[in-house]
Automatic annotation (TrEMBL):
GO molecular-function terms, A-Z: transferase activity
Protein name listed in UniProt: Sulfurtransferase TusA family protein
Similarity section: Belongs to the sulfur carrier protein TusA family.
UPF0033 domain: residues covered: 7-31
CDD domains: SirA_YedF_YeeD (cd00291)
Recorded superkingdom: Bacteria
Pfam families: TusA
Alphabetical UniProt keywords: Transferase
Originating species: Bacillus salipaludis
Length: 75
């Protein structure tokens, strides 16, 4: 994966992880990957739906020690 940016959204409640993800995805090029770290449990559904509706691809998701990690490829 060509991860070009890592977004730390830990400790932020909905809707801030989505707001920050949208801003960060606009700062990278098409085909590049954004890695997101959050502690908001709602982000699992929110980010999946947001990526799909925006034409982006959720490449991977994992949870580690209460931290949700997402890798989204910009469409």
């Amino acid at each position: 994966m060509n991860i070009v940016k890592v977004l730390d959204a830990k400790g932020l409640a909905c809707p801030m992880p989505i707001v920050k993800t949208k801003k960060a995805i606009n700062e990278i090029g098409s085909g590049e990957v954004l890695e997101i770290h959050t502690t908001d449990k709602g982000a699992k559904n929110d980010l999946s739906a947001w990526a799909k509706s925006g034409g982006h691809e959720l490449l991977k998701f994992e949870e580690e020690n209460g931290i949700l990690k997402f890798w989204i490829k910009k469409g």
